[in-house]
# Entry
Amino acid sequence: VAFVINLNRIDPLVYVYYPLRISVSILIFWLGYQGFTNYSLMSERIEIRKLIAKNKILINNKENNKITNSKFLNIKNHIETNLSFLNPIYSLQILSDELKISTSSLSKIINSENEYNFSDYINYLRVEKAKELLLSSEYKNYKILSIGLECGFNSKSTFYLAFKKFTNQTPVEFRNQIE
# Structure
C-alpha cells in the first residue's frame, strides 16, 4: 500500500540507491555466512565436549616423578583431575578460591615448584590436552580450531601461539606429521 501511495514520488534516478542495495545485500550474505560457520563450529565444540566428558582423558605428564612438594602436587592434581584448565576464564583467583589459599601463596608455590608461571602452566596443560585430542583417531574429523577452543583457549591466535611456544610447531603441522 505504501508503495502504491508513493509511486508518484519515485525519482527517475533510482540507480543512485544501487550502492546502498549492493552493500546491504553483501552485509546480509556475510551475516548468513558467519552464522553458518559459527553454528558448525559450535556444533563440533559440543560434540567434542561430550566426548571429553565421556572419556575423561587425563594428561599423562612424565614430570610427575620430579614433583616433590606435596603442596604443588595437590594443586596439580586438583587442576588436572577436575579438568579446570579447560575453562577459558580459569584464573589464579578462581583456583585460589577453590583451594582456599591466597593468590600470592599459590603463585609462589607454582613458581617455585614448576618451570612455568600460572598462566603458562595452564596453557601448557591446554596444549597437552590439544595434542592428545589431535593424536586421537576419534577426533580426526574435527576442525583444529574446535579442538583448541574446547581445550580452553579463547581464540585461534592464542591457541596457535601457545601451541607453537610449547611444541615448536603449529597445530596443523602437528596433525599433518601424525597422518
The CA atoms of residues 140 and 168 lie 21 Å apart. The longest helix spans residues 18-55.
